[in-house]
Amino acid sequence: MPLTFDDLLTRARALTHHGGRAILGVTGSPGAGKTTLAELLVRELNGTGDPWVAHVPMDGFHLADIELERLGRRDRKGSPDTFDAAGYAALLRRLREDDDGDVVYAPGFERVLEQPIAGAVPVPPTARLVVTEGNYLLLDTGSWTRVRAQLDEVWFCELDEQERIRRLVARHEEFGKDHDTAVAWVLGSDQHNAELVDSTRDRADLVVPMTELSLRSMIDD
Q1: Does 209 reside within a domain?
Q2: Closest Cα to residue 174, out of 219, 111, 123, 124?
Q3: Structural domains counted in the chain
Q4: Going residue by residue through the chain (221 aa), what tens digit of pLDDT does each one get?
Q5: Range of the domain at 60
Q6: Which of 26, 55, 73, 143 could staple 85 via S-S, CB 3.0–4.6 A?
Q7: Residue 177 phi, psi (nearest 5)
């Protein structure tokens, strides 16, 4: 039987059956549909009632451009060492263990500015499931190993390669790059990162075939 979106909703709900706060990771190569899937899961699970699912993207842990320039890494922004992996892992641990009834604030990422924004994502104490998404959730080097330890499950989004590249070029163009610059970035820095992420696929608890999974009607709603 092919995997359906309803199957994913059922599996996500089941993560909270132990009674504590659960954290679901959604990963995959750049442009594979991680954010789309995470946002749809949160929207459909919350429905019209009181929100009990929160979305915390990894992108808020991008290092600021000024720090990337100091480190000499600005030209490969998006690579694993251009994120605060230890800070991300610490936030996930706090989200899992927090029991003081306070709102936990996570950083967000402003795509127009391409900069992290502190305190932009509130996670209320009523959130029983946190959906977090990013490229490197299954990376087994450095501080990234601490990230996987905080996640109940990690799902890997898999998309047809030509479609993934097309979407990624379109995204870069949408946020200000001209076509040639966008293509060069996607086939250069982004492609190197995509190959690294793809090498972590076998560590996922579930592979989600985004090419076959029909989400278009839900996106258009």
Answers
A1: yes
A2: 111
A3: 1
A4: 788 999 999 999 999 988 789 999 999 998 899 999 999 999 999 987 788 999 999 999 999 999 999 999 998 888 999 999 999 999 999 999 876 788 999 999 987 777 899 999 999 999 999 999 999 999 999 999 999 999 999 999 999 888 888 887 887 787 777 888 878 767 777 788 889 999 999 999 999 999 888 664 444 33
A5: 5-214
A6: 143
A7: -80, 145
Cα(171)–Cα(114) distance, integer angstroms: 12
Q: Is residue 128 part of a domain?
A: yes
Q: Where are the beta strands (DSSP E) in the chain?
A: 22-28, 53-55, 104-110, 115-123, 129-133, 153-158, 206-209
CATH number, domain of 176, equals: 3.40.50.300
Residues 6+ apart with CB under 8 A from 144: 80, 85, 89, 136, 137
Helices (H), 55-160: 65-71, 85-97, 144-148
Overall pTM surpassing 0.85 (yes/no): yes
CB 31 within 8 A of CB 157: no
What the block records as the tokens of 214 is 């029909």
